[in-house]
Amino acid sequence: MRFLLAAGLVLALPVAALAQGTPNPNRLDGSGVPAATPVAHPAPVSVGETDLDFISSYYQQNGDHGAVEGGIGTQHLTDVAPTIVLNVPLDSVARLTANVGFDYYASASTDRIDQVISSPSASDVRYHIDLGYARTLKDKRTILSIGGGASKEYDYQSFNLAGSWTHGSRDGNRELSIGGQVYLDRVTLILPVELRTAATGSGNQAHGSGFDNRQSYNLNIVYSQVLTKRLQMAVSTELVSQRGLLSTPFHRVYFYDSDRALGTPGTLGTAKTELLPRLRNKFPVGLRLNYYATDLVQIRGFYRFYNDNFGIRAHTFELEAPVKVSPFFTLYPFYRYHTQTASTYFAPWREHSIYDEYYTSDYDLSAFTAQKLGLGFRYAPLYGLGRFKTPFGGRVAKFKSIDLRYGHYWQTTGLTANIVSVDFGFVMP
Fold first, then answer.
1. Run of H or E residues at 9
2. Beta bridge partners of 183
3. Could you tell me which of 17, 181, 180, 20 has the C-alpha nearest to residue 100?
4. R_g (Cα) of the chain, nearest Å
């Protein structure tokens, strides 16, 4: 029993390790469009049965510091992301997992790349797929997993490989998990329309000046320990090294000064495309505590310290308190607090000099404090919510659970967001 409790702190890691890379790696507080929709309760299933989750989320944000317009434009964005997650036991020691879906987003900010409202860049679709294989070794305390995936949108392609090793102690009170991921990305360079030149192409062309690449190397280490019958802890780190193109070519930066070589300044000032170093190392460490206050109430706490070579220092606190209203109905309010310093390379609109080596007006790299407050519920009756015959083969499937979650997010920069997600869980024969 203790081993299962301890494993609950880290077993989600190999599954999460197969998730897609985030579309916006500058968001450090876990806000924004989810990089991948997690399965709420990835519990083991019996051999001969398949866990199937239909997950969907709707995200909307508003703000006035869009990076496409140099930190002074709209940040309005909506995103719909349906996903199917499969967990298929092959036998008593091996299982396959699959995560397939797409994101459809509409962005008023990227619509300003061409400075034409309702341009082709106003919306896009990102498709993604991840496959994984996990196997428990003969000692029944070691799990190996491997996987890979890909995602594609109009100007972005990404491929990833992942692997992890998890080992539990004989008494089941301790567990160590180590996972690694490699992301290989290819980015189409799309420049703001007024910054295209004879060399990059000009006018309302779709592409700018070709392609560039990015590589990301992640190392996840998690150690979990059962401290008492009611208290568990896990210490983790996720070291990340990114190389290649780390700036966004269609982000404008406006300067307070000018240079003849850049021509006559426009009404908003002299503009160039964002420029950031081609190497970024991230060093986060986290502590998670789960406390079973009573048989009906659990308190989950998380703290993370983050720093990187872009000059950002951040602290994140999370608290979630699942309460069993009945044996099958659980409410879980949650709250997150995040604060960070600004990157060395960030400055607001017209506060950079054209002689700066690197420059950005992306407010994801600014100093701010953010909070997120929300409520979720899970309903999972013992015999499920219903049964039905599958379209092919006429076998009986079970509609086992429903999870619904809402969160409201706000920053001191003025950015606000709302996200609703739902998870319909099924067991297929």
1. helix 2-10
2. 160, 216
3. 20
4. 23
Other CB atoms closer than 10 Å to residue 403's CB: what's the count?
A: 21
The length of the chain in residues reads 429
Is the distance from CB of 221 to CB of 192 less than 8 angstroms?
A: no
Q: How far apart are CA 128 and CA 298, in angstroms?
A: 34
Q: What is the pLDDT of residue 278?
A: 96
Residues 6+ apart with CB under 8 A from 64: 72, 73, 74, 75, 414
Contact at 8 Å (CB) between 67 and 274?
A: yes
Other beta carbons less than 10 A from residue 164's beta carbon: 25
Check: CB of residue 334 under 8 Å from CB of residue 298: no
Nearest residue to 321 via CA among 312, 330, 329: 330
30, two tokens? 């876990």
Whether the pLDDT of residue 234 is over 90: the answer is yes
What would you measure as the largest C-alpha separation in the chain, in angstroms?
Answer: 74
16: enclosing H helix or E strand: helix 12-16
> Which amino acid does the sequence have at 262?
L
Q: Which residue has the tokens 């496959």?
A: 131
Residue 398 and residue 387 in contact, taking contact as beta carbons nearer than 8 Å:
yes
The pLDDT tens digits for 57-101 are 999 999 999 999 999 989 999 999 999 999 999 998 999 999 999
Burial class (CB within 10 angstroms; exposed 0-12, middle 13-18, buried 19+) of 13? buried
Looking at mean pLDDT, say which of 46-50, 80-84, 260-264 comes out highest: 80-84
Instruction: Characterize 183-208 residue by residue with b for buried, 16 or more Cβ atoms within 10 angstroms of its Cβ, and e for exposed.
Output: bbbbbbbbbbbebbeeebeeeeeeeb
Quick one: which H or E segment has residue 10?
helix 2-10
pLDDT: is 320 or 3 the higher one? 320
For residue 215, the tally of other CB atoms under 10 A from its CB is 12
**Alpha carbon distance 249, 189 (integer Å):** 6
Tokens of 418: 């709302």
Question: pTM of the prediction?
Answer: 0.87
Of 325, 283, 273, 276, the residue nearest 304 (C-alpha) = 283
What are the tens digits of pLDDT across the range 19-45?
444 446 677 766 665 555 454 445 556
For tokens 């307070």, what's the residue? 256
Give Cβ neighbours of residue 386 (< 8 Å, ≥ 6 apart): 398, 399
3-state secondary structure 204-251: CCCCCCCEEEEEEEEEEEEEEEECCCCEEEEEEEEEEEEEECCCCCCC
141, 128 contact by CB (below 8 A): no
Tell me what the mean pLDDT of segment 139-162 comes to: 94
Q: Which residue has the tokens 């991840």?
A: 130
